[in-house]
Amino acid sequence: MFFQFAFPIAIIFYLLGSGFYLFRQHKITFCAFFVGFIAHTFFQISSGLFLGVWFINPVFDASYFLPWSMAAICLVMLFFSKDEKNKAIIHSMIIPVSLFSALGLFFPRGIMPPGPQHQTILVSVYFSIDIIAQACFILGAWFAFFHLKGKDQDKLFNSLIAAGFIFYSISQVVGAYWAYLGWSLPMHWSTKHIQSASVWCYYAAVLHLRYFPSWNSRHESWFALGGAMLLLVFNYSTQLSAFSIPKIGG
Amino acid sequence: MVKRIWDFCGDIKVNFWLIFAIALNLAAGTYFIKFNPNLFKPLNHSLVQDWFIKYGQYQPGQSWWIVLLFALAFFLGINTFVCAVKRLAQLWLQRKQYGFRMFFVKISPSLIHLCFLAILAGHFFSLTAIYEQNVPVHLNQQIVLPQGNSVEVLSREIEHYTTPAAFEGALKQCSVVLKLQSPQTSEIRELRVLNPIYWQGMSIHLDVLTKKNSQNNAADPELKLIIKKDPGAALVIVSFAVLCLLMFWYFPQRKKT
Question: Are B82 and B9 in contact (CB under 8 A)?
């Protein structure tokens, strides 16, 4: 089916866009990025249909939905940004989008039959918002990197981290409610829940940094980079365990 | 002296380092849970003090981070309370300088912090003051509960996927029919996974135990009734929801002002 090729096509365009970005061809970068995003969107929607019956859960598979969310945030920022310097940094976001999309190729694909505890829309709401928040945190770190290099003078990384924190908090409420309905506990003593609590506390701490008179935005940038590292270590240590789980259509 | 303690407790730097220490402590905790799940699993269905007496105290090398977590959360609670109260008191005196909207923007961070305190309190109650019974489901079994209440399992139903073909036979949904008997009333209700019953101040949940990560869990799954009185769960979820709403409103306002 065509949708199976849509993701590799998206990656090819993202990589092309990254190449053009490195040669400072921003207009062509945007065109390649946009075509890649359309192919990626098509892949995300159609992946819910690959068993012939609509299942929403595969649409929000983190391996593919994370780079899609990053690309979507990038386009939204491009649309609203008026500053040319900021636009140049936003164009550079095609590089992390390409990297995370390419990583998606190496993770196992397929679907697990949703069991009794997954028969609720809360599952999709939780995963989708959680991944959008992660995309904000990772892009926040990307902008923080540019801030450390003397660019991003508007400190856009702060806005991305604040937005990520709001989305992450919402996902935690939805997750807590789902866990309460399904297992009678809003929070489990499990790796996933404690990791989420750790990330939430870390970014709560980062948001308080602005009230330190003696610390400047460079300190905040380092913490933003540290947060993304923490998130990626947690995420990919979980993703690696996915290799041992047999999936249908993988 | 009292003022110095009060100022230290309400110091934003102390706040930052406490949250940061909790984040690192939890990160360390994930390592211990991942490599010793059998030690921490009972924590989900027992009071934390009971768990510590039964398991935790014998493995201090594995459980130290939970003790530290409680200590840090306690100091964070005090610090958050003092910070919020100090700020509210200060803003209350200046309230006439601002319009209502501006005043609300100004006090929102303090309200967010008070919600956070409520979440901490909710978790504390959930960990230290719940009543819980975990009972495997057997037909016609009667479960005796406090205050003359009882629950009887009348029937159970297991639903499997029939479509799509790839899912055929996999477990889809489970339900049981319960007879709920109190000294005054008797009623029959259906309980499904994800649809708990609220009755006599308790919640009754249906849990299904399947082989982890197994697609083929069609064989008779083990069902479990979780009957509990959790004074903290609602506080945690409602306070967290209010906290999110406040943040969702506050951050764009902060930019405008």
Answer: yes
Provide mean pLDDT across the span B167-194: 93
Q: Is B165 helix (H, G, I), strand (E, B) or coil?
A: helix
C-alpha span between A247 and A224 (Å, rounded): 35
Cα A110 to its chain centre, rounded Å, is 20
Residues of B in contact with A188 (CB under 8 A): 44
B239-249 residue pLDDT tens: 999 999 999 99
Signed CA dihedral, A107, A110, A115, A118: sign only = positive
Per-residue pLDDT reduced to its tens digit, B61-116: 999 999 999 999 999 999 999 999 999 999 999 888 888 889 999 999 999 999 99
Grouping H, G, I as helix, E, B as strand and the rest as coil, residue B192 is: strand
Q: Indicate the residue of B16, B171, B247 with minimum beta-carbon distance to A209.
A: B16
CB contact under 8 A, B173 and A194: no
Whether the CB of B27 is below 8 Å from some CB of chain A: the reply is yes
User: Do A44 and A10 form a contact (C-beta atoms < 8 A)?
Assistant: no
What pLDDT score does B220 carry?
A: 74
pLDDT in tens, B36-76: 999 999 999 899 999 999 999 999 999 999 999 999 999 99
B positions 132-161 inside 8 Å of A (CB): 132, 161
Helix (H) or strand (E) segment spanning residue B45 = none
Strand order, beta sheet including B197-199: B131-136, B222-229, B202-209, B197-199
ipTM of the complex: 0.93
**What is the torsional sign of CA B18, B22, B24, B25?**
positive
CB B30 within 8 A of CB A194: yes
| pLDDT (0 to 100) of residue A196 | 96
What residues contact residue B44 under an 8 Å CB cut-off, 6+ apart?
A: A183, A185, A188, A189, A190
pLDDT average, residue stretch A72-76: 95
Number of H helices and number of E strands within chain A? 9, 0
Q: Which residue has the tokens 């139903």?
A: B157
Which pTM does this prediction carry? 0.93
Return the residue of B nearest to A189 by Cα. B44
